[in-house]
Input
Amino acid sequence: MGFIVAVDGPAGSGKGTITKIVSERMNLVSIDTGAMYRCVALDCLNNEIDSTDLDGIENILNNIKIELKNEDGKQKVLLNGKDVSEEIRTAKVDNAVAKYAAVKIIRDKVTPMQRKMGETQNIIMEGRDIGTVVFPNADVKIFLDCSVEERARRRYKQNLEKGINETFEEVLSNIKERHRLETEREVAPFVKAEDAIYIDSSNMTIEEVSDKIIEIIKQKMNKR
Ligand code: DC
Output
């Protein structure tokens, strides 16, 4: 088993950016597990398979191939051989993914794929259930929290930069609804692992959060 850093946190907590910075500075392979659920959701949407159609989903899962690649410092996501790095971030996937991520047979397929990635390399893996379900024995567990208002502000700003026209109220209500679906689902609900280190990023800069996590990782690596 490699050295495993688990980072769990809600959408907009900054965990993607922070994971990337920490992975580069600590020489860890970064893995974005949300991208994997986004791939499954996209494959289902493209084939018009609803999140309640378990036979249809089973068929998708039997044929799916998800690859996460790091090319020139950028993460590329391939779904069945096609580059979907941009497509999995569209509003269509954004608004549907939480429903698919709540489906047990989807999680039962994706979780072992994630565990395998930690067998042979040192990783920092970000998601919602990494410290609780995927790697309950991770070397370092971080729970990166952030208030909903601040998360909505960040997402709203990102949207404006991307030219997406959504009001702040719409963004806030989407974030709240996704949070509800993720925390209330029966399978692998999004909760803090008891032994995870809690960091609230609401009033911290990206650098402050990254430095703090790096310090925690260094301490643990020295002990190992
Ligand atoms: O982090 P993200 O927004 O890209 O995640 C996409 C969706 O997948 C979101 O609904 C949460 C879900 N997810 C999950 O259930 N478990 C994970 N380990 C990662 C993401």
User: Anything to note?
Assistant: The chain has one domain: 4-223. The mean pLDDT is 94. The CA atoms of residues 98 and 119 lie 27 Å apart.
